[in-house]
Structures are given as C-alpha cells and as structure tokens.
C-alpha cells in the first residue's frame, strides 16, 4: 500500500508543481479513498503541500512571477483565517461533508481551467485595492484550514476570472498562498493538540512529493500541459468528493 501511495503522491506533485499548485486536493482524495484517519489525512496533505510549494515559491520569485505586494495582501487575512479554520473543533462526519463539498468544487474549477480558460497573448490586468484581496484570501483561507487544502485550486480561477494578474503571476501567487495557508493550518492543529503525525506513514510520502515537486518545478508547463492534467485528475477528485457526500 505504501509503495502505491508513494507513486501516486510523486505523480501528483510532479504534475501540479509546474502550475504552482501543491496538490492538496488530490492528496486528500487519494487518502480518503484509502480510508486513512481523517486527522492524519489533514496533517499529511498540509505537510505535502508545504514540501512541494517551497520549491515553487522560490522558482516563481526568482523568475519574477511572484508579486509580493499582492501576495502579502492575500495572506494578511488568509493566514489567521486558515489558522482559525484548522483550530475549530470538528467531528469526523462534518469534516467529510465539508471535504466532499470542497473536492467537488475543486473538480469543477479544474474542469473550468481545462475547457474554458484561454491563454491570450496579451493579458489585461485589472488593478484592485487590498480590501478585495483580503476578502478573497480570507474566505479561501478559512475553507483551506477546515479541510486541509492549501487553497490555490480556488484562488487561481478567482484571480483569473477577475483578471487581477497574468497567468504566470497567478501561478506564483497560488504557490505562495498554498505555502502560508498550509503552515497556518498545521499550526492550528498543533494549537488544539489534534495533529496526527505517523513518521512511518508520512515520511515516505514526503520524500515522494519532494522529488516529484522538484522535477515538476523545473519542467516546462508546455511539456506537462497542466490544463489537461487538471482535467484528468478532476475525475478522481470528483469521484472522491461525490462519494463522501453520498456517504
């Protein structure tokens, strides 16, 4: 079982890291289908998110595609909200209900990116104040803290629809957003003393996503075709999400 999970986590990290995502929604979907304890699911997905996007944040920052002012505006509210979301007491049934909704929404967003999002040679960017970024970051941060998803899968389509930055900058912002929210989510679990960390289970998965993330961050998006990757993995995530809602 561990070898299969390691391969799946490696593949997810490889494919998602090039687009600025950590793969948290897919990690959770895979772990849910494997019947892993829900507290262990949350901590494992968040730790894997952190391991993957650290390299992505550096990559986007170094290439000039991480506008720090916008990243800080988004994080100013999202980080405390992610902490609160993770700290809130939650029964297993409530967690799986929220996760089912979150995964279903994530699958819908993935399908949108695949079928409706277009790459334009000249992208129009609309400027907005910090209040808008704070509202967006806070809402997504709360959801990410409660479910163990970094939130980048929701942030990217919202920024794209609002035309608040270019596609490459949005990938950089999503990577940074996932990093800070995942750290806040881990701290929330630690604060309420409900974090579950099984070294024998988590360590092989962490090593797998680190290797996959480093490879993916260095590959061209044209090679990996992240939109088609999103469409393919949306099937897995949608299946897991609907299955949880039905149960």
UniProtKB/TrEMBL annotation:
Membrane topology of this protein: Multi-pass membrane protein
The entry's keywords: Cell membrane, Membrane, Transmembrane, Transmembrane helix
Subcellular location field: Cell membrane; Membrane
One GO location term (cellular component): plasma membrane
The keyword Membrane is annotated on this UniProt entry: yes
Main location: membrane
Keyword Membrane among record annotations: yes
Matching Pfam families: TauE
Family label: Belongs to the 4-toluene sulfonate uptake permease (TSUP) (TC 2.A.102) family.
PANTHER family the UniProt entry points to: MEMBRANE TRANSPORTER PROTEIN MJ0441-RELATED, MEMBRANE TRANSPORTER PROTEIN-RELATED
Name assigned to this protein: Probable membrane transporter protein
Upper classification of the organism: Bacteria, Pseudomonadati, Bacteroidota, Chitinophagia, Chitinophagales
